[in-house]
Amino acid sequence: MIKFMKASTHCLPLSVILRENNIPLSARKVNQVLFERGYLLRMYRQSMKNVEKMKSFYVLSGKGLEYGVNVKNRCHPIQTEPRYNTEKILPLICEISDSLYDRG
Question: How far apart are CA 56 and CA 32, in angstroms?
Answer without folding.
Answer: 13
